[in-house]
Structures are given as structure tokens and as C-alpha cells.
Amino acid sequence: MKPKGGRGKRAGYATVQVRCPEPIKSAVVNLINQWHLGEVQQSEPVTELTELQTEIETLKQLNQNLNTTIEELRKRNQELESKLTVNVLNTGFNQDEQNLNTSIETTEQTNLNTSMETTEQTNLNTGISQEALDILEQSLSLKSNAGGKIKDAIRQALTLLK
Fold first, then answer.
1. Which of 33, 74, 87, 89 is the most buried (most CB within 10 A)?
2. 106 in any annotated domain
3. How many angstroms separate the CA atoms of 20 and 16, rounded?
4. Cα gap 91→104, rounded to integer Å
5. Domains identified in the chain, total number
6. How far is CA 106 from CA 49, 103, 109, in A?
7. How far apart are CA 142 and CA 133, in angstroms?
8. Rounded CA separation 98/22 (Å)
9. Inside any domain, residue 81
10. Domain containing residue 157
11. Degrees (nearest 5) of the Cα angle 25, 31, 37?
12. How far apart are CA 53 and CA 138, in angstroms?
């Protein structure tokens, strides 16, 4: 039902006067009549503002996706840096371990050589000490008036001990 307008009578909606081309006038009038009958629902007109809002929302979503991707790439980069650091440390550790093993082998060889030299020297000293002991025991068996012989025996023993 078409509301009647006029002085003092207002329609329950806002109206506008628009110039319409003759060829589509009948289609426009039919659309208006359908709207009055309730067959056509009122819809928001698509304007530049709603198009821009839609585009802004799309860009926001894309930006969020990019931020997520950037964060994932940063995490991956940190993981790779950690692995690289571990690998560098392992390489250094292996070199240090090789150096340590070489040092241990060198030290063991040096200790063995020193031990052998000490043993040989001890064996020599034992032989000398035994000779010195024999000389000193013989000097004890000398008579008390044999002072010069005792002194000579002690000198011989000291010479052997030096």
C-alpha cells in the first residue's frame, strides 16, 4: 500500500527525489511498489565507506598473518642459532679433548721416563750406598789407635755418597 503524502502527512521513512532515465522508469517504479508491499527488504547501500572498511579488515587480517609468519621465522632463526652455537661448542670441545688426550699421553710418557731415570739412579745409589756402608762397617772394626785409617775410610764413603 502506497502511503499518501502531503501537507502534514509524513511517510514513516525518509524520501528523496531522484531523476531517473525514461528507459528504466518502469523498473524503478516496480521496485518501489515491491518495497511498499514488503517484498523487498531494506538493505544498506554499498558505499565507498563500507568498501573501504571491508578492505581495511582484509588488510588487518593480512597484517596479522604476516606478523604470525615473522614471529615463526624469528623462532626458527633462534633455534638455528642455538644449534649453530652448540655445534661450534662441540667442535671446540672435540679439539680441546684431543689436546687434553695429547697432553695426557705426553705427561704419562714424561712420568714414565722420569720414573725409569729415578729407578736407575736409585739402583746406582743403592750400589754406592752399599759400598759406603761396607767401608763404614770396616772402619768400625779398626782399632781405636788407627785414627788415620778411620778418617780415610770416612772420606771414601763420603766420596761415594756424593
1. 33
2. yes
3. 12
4. 20
5. 1
6. 84, 5, 5
7. 15
8. 98
9. yes
10. 22-41+57-161
11. 140
12. 123
Q: Which three cell numbers stand for residue 22?
A: 525514461
Neighbours of 101 (CB within 10 A): 10
Q: Is residue 17 part of a domain?
A: no
C-alpha cell of 135?
767401608
d(CA 115, CA 94): 31
* CA 160 – CA 157 distance, rounded (Å): 5
CA distance 132 to 125: 10
Cell of 44: 544498506
Assigned domain for 1 exists: no
